[in-house]
Request: fold
Amino acid sequence: MVERPNRGNALNWRKSSASAEQTDCVEVAASGRSVLVRDSHAPSARVIELDPAQWRGFLRRIIDGDAEAR
Reply:
C-alpha cells in the first residue's frame, strides 16, 4: 500500500450505489494495475494505492466483516 498525494481529476472515481445514503464513503479509481482509494468527503486529500493482491484482501476483509469502521 502506498499513500500519495491525490493524482488529479482525470481518473474515473466511483463509489458504490449502496453508499448513497451513507455519510462516510470512499471512492475508488483504476490506475493501470493499481486501485486508488480516497475519502469522498476530502477528494483533494491523499490517496491510497493498492496493488491487485492488496485490493482483493481489502475486499475480502469487508465481505468477511473484519474491516472496522472508523
User: Anything to note?
Assistant: The helical segments are 52-63. The chain has a mean pLDDT of 82. Residues 1-7+40-70 form one domain. Residues 52-63 form the longest helix (12 residues).
